[in-house]
Amino acid sequence: MSFHLFTGTDTYLVTPELRDAVNVACALEKPLLIRGEPGTGKTVLAEAIAENLDKQLLTWNIKSTTKAQEGLYVYDTIQRLNDARFGDRDIGDIRQYIKLGPLGLALRAQERVVLLIDEIDKADMEFPNDLLHELDRMSFSVFETGDQITAEHRPIVVITSNNEKELPDAFLRRCVFHYIEFPNKETMANIVRVHHPDVEDELLRQVLLRFYWLRDLPDVRKRPSTSELIDWIAAIRRGGITAQAIEKELPFMGVLLKRESDIEMVLAKRRFGRVS
Amino acid sequence: MFVDFLYHLRDFGLKVTSTEWLALMQALRGGHARANLNTFYHLARCLLVKRESEYDNYDRAFASFFGGIEASPDVSEELLEWLKNPILPEISDEDRAKMRAFDLDELAARFRELLEQQKERHDGGNRWIGTGGTSPFGHGGEHPTGVRVGGGGGGRSAVQVADSRRYRNLRSDRILDTRQIGLALRRLKRLDKDEGPQELDLDDTIDQSARNGGEIELVFGPPRRNRVKLLLLMDVGGSMDPYTHLCERLFSAAHAANHFKKFEYRFFHNCVYRRLYTDMQHSKGDPTHEVLKTLDHTWSAVFVGDAWMAPTELTHGGGAIDFDDRNSIAGLEWLRRIRQRVPNSIWLNPEPRGRWNEPSIHMIRRVFPMYELTIDGLTEAVDVLRGTRPNRPSANQIKP
C-alpha cells in the first residue's frame, strides 16, 4: 500500500496519537470521527490533512436542519417547475436539475479528496444512520435519473462532533475515533509559538500559568480555549503589558471569559488573595 | 491470548464488535502498531473505543490485561505468544488465510528486537527512531524514515498511561450538568401535526400544479410540532438535601427546554400526599386530586426523589413525614393513582443504584420504572417516555 503519511503542518501541531489515528483512517479507508472540547482544533485538522497531503478539501457544514440527502444531491424541483411554466429550457433533461452536495462531489471526484463533515451532532438524531450506506460503500444512486455514482478514489472523511448528541452505535462502529484532549502546558506553549513566534519566554510562562489557573477553576462555566488564549496574548502584546503585570492582575479578561458570571467570579476570587 | 483481549474488553463493558476487531486486525497487518505497546494502546483505542466516556473503562481493562506483562522480564515471551495466535471469533476462512500470510517468525524476531531497544532506552531518550521501510508486520506498510514511536514527552508506557486513568472525568455515569441534562431532554419528542402558522407543502404543491396543467398551485399544511407535555415532580428537603444542586440543574434544564408543548412542575416531601406544592418551602400548592384532573395519558410525568423513607410513610394513612399533612390516603395509593392517570411516568433517583435495596425504594419501583439520575439513567428514562423502551416497573433485587 502506498500513500503519503500525514505528519502535521507548520501551523498545525499534531500529537503522535492523533497522527496515527489519521493514518489508520486513511489506510483502512474508514471515516475519522474527531471529538473534543471546542477550540482543540477539530475543524482545522481536516484543513491540515488536505494541506499536508496536497488534496482538495470539501466541507459540509451540518446544521440542525441538514438532511443526509442534501450531502449527496438535491433535485431542484422548484427550478424545474418554474422552467416548465416560464422557462425555455428542456425540462425533459432531469440531470440539469440534479445538484451534487459535498458528499456527492467527493465521491465523484477524479482524485482522492478530503471531505470534512463538520459538527455532525448538530443534525437530527437519525442523520448519521442515513449516511451509513454511502460511507460504507462510497457510492450512491440518483433516484430520479437512475445514475449510479461510485467513488474511484475513496475520499478521506473527517467528521467532527461536539458531543451534543449521542451518535448511533452502528455509525460509530464504522469510524476510527479520536478524542482530542485539551493540550497540556508544554504542547500549548508550542501551539502559541506557532502563532506568536517571537513571544518572550517569561511572558509566555506567566500567560500560560494564568490561563490554566482560570481553566481549572471549578466554577468557570465557559472555559477559555486555545483560540481565546492566542487572542489574549495578541491583546497583551499589543497593549505592551509586561510579564510582571500579568502576575499581579488579569488584563483584558474579556478576551478569555465570555460570561458575566465567570468574570465576576474570578474578580471575587482575586479579592481573596493572589492567584496561583 | 489475542482473542482474550477482546473478551477482556467486553468484560469491562466495552461493546467491541467483530467488525471493529477485524478492523484492528487489518491495521495490525498494515503495521500500524509498529511493534510497540504504546502505539498499540492508541491504535486499539481509536479502532475499538468510540466514546471518550469509555476511555476510562478501556484504560482499566488495558492496565489489568497488560499490567503484569510489562512489569515482568518475560515481556516479549508473552506478547509474542499473543501475537502468534491471532485467532478470531466469527471470521471467514478467507480472512483467516489472509492473516496467516504474514511471516510470524520474522515478526517475532523483529518484535523482540524492538522491545529490547525500548527497554534500553527507557530512562534515556524519549525519541525512538524506526528504521524506515521494514514494517514488522509484513504486508508492505511503508514507514518513511524518522517516525517517532512511543510517548511524546515523559516516556510513560502505555500501561502507565492507562493506569493513570486520565479519562475518569469523562465517564458518562457521573453526575451531569445543566447542558447535558438539557441535551438529554431534547430527545424527549413526540412529533404530531399541530395547529399554528401554515407551511408550504412542497410535494403537494408539485402534485397539484401538475394536475393543474402546469399552473402553479401552492398548497399549505400544518407544521409538525412536539406534543410532549411534561410534569416534573421533585422531592425536596430532608434526605434530598445533598442532591439539591443536581435537582436544581435538572429543573433549570427542563425549564429552559422550550420544545415541550407544556411544562409543569410540583414539589413534594418524601412522597406525594393530598397536596402538591408549587414552591420548595411547601407553603403554596394545590390539592393533588385537582392537579390530577388537569392530567391525562397525553402527559409524561417524571418523579425525582431518593424514594428513601420509612415504609409506613408509603403504606399507612397518616404516615406522612410532615405532621400537619394529615393524610387519610396512604402515599403509595397516591403514587398508584398518578401512575394510573399518567401511565407514561418514570422515577429518577439521585442515589446510586447500589443503594436501592431499601424497602421503600422497592415499593416505589413496583409502581414506576426507576432510573439513576446520571446521563445514562436519564437517557434510558427518556427512551421510556418516548416509547422506544418498554415502560415496566420492576422489583428485581439490585446487586450491591
Describe the model.
Chain A is an alpha/beta fold and 276 residues long. Chain A has helices at 16-28, 42-53, 68-72, 77-85, 102-108, 127-137, 169-173, 185-195, 201-216, 226-238, 243-248, 253-256, 260-271, and strands at 32-36, 57-61, 73-75, 98-100, 114-118, 139-142, 147-150, 156-161, 176-180. In chain A, helix 8 (185-195) packs across helix 9 (201-216). Chain A is elongated. Chain B has 16 helices and eleven strands. In chain B, helix 11 (244-256) links the parallel strand 5 and strand 6 (262-268). In chain B, 41% of the residues lie in helices and 11% in strands. Chain B has helices at residues 2-11, 18-29, 37-48, 55-71, 75-84, 93-100, 104-120, 158-164, 178-186, 202-211, 244-256, 288-293, 312-315, 331-341, 359-365, 375-386; strands at residues 191-193, 199-200, 220-221, 224-226, 229-235, 262-268, 275-277, 285-287, 299-304, 345-349, 370-372. The longest helix of chain B is centred in the first third of the chain and has 17 residues, at 55-71. In chain B, helix 2 runs antiparallel to helix 3 (37-48), helix 5 (75-84) packs antiparallel against helix 7 and helix 9 packs parallel to helix 16 (375-386). Mean pLDDT of chain B is 71; it is low at 71-76, 83-91, 98-104 and 119-156. Classes of the chains: A alpha/beta (276), B alpha/beta (400). At the A-B interface, helix 1, helix 4, helix 7 and strand 9 of A face helix 2, helix 3 and helix 10 of B.
Set out the fold topology:
The complex is a heterodimer of chains A (276) and B (400).
Chain A: H1 16-28, E1 32-36, H2 42-53, E2 57-61, H3 68-72, E3 73-75, H4 77-85, E4 98-100, H5 102-108, E5 114-118, H6 127-137, E6 139-142, E7 147-150, E8 156-161, H7 169-173, E9 176-180, H8 185-195, H9 201-216, H10 226-238, H11 243-248, H12 253-256, H13 260-271
Parallel strand pairs in A: 1-8, 1-9, 2-5, 5-8
Antiparallel strand pairs in A: 3-4, 6-7
Helix pairs in contact in A: 8-9
Chain B: H1 2-11, H2 18-29, H3 37-48, H4 55-71, H5 75-84, H6 93-100, H7 104-120, H8 158-164, H9 178-186, E1 191-193, E2 199-200, H10 202-211, E3 220-221, E4 224-226, E5 229-235, H11 244-256, E6 262-268, E7 275-277, E8 285-287, H12 288-293, E9 299-304, H13 312-315, H14 331-341, E10 345-349, H15 359-365, E11 370-372, H16 375-386
Parallel strand pairs in B: 5-6, 5-9, 9-10, 10-11
Antiparallel strand pairs in B: 1-4, 2-3, 7-8
Helix pairs in contact in B: 1-4, 2-3, 4-8, 5-7, 9-11, 9-16
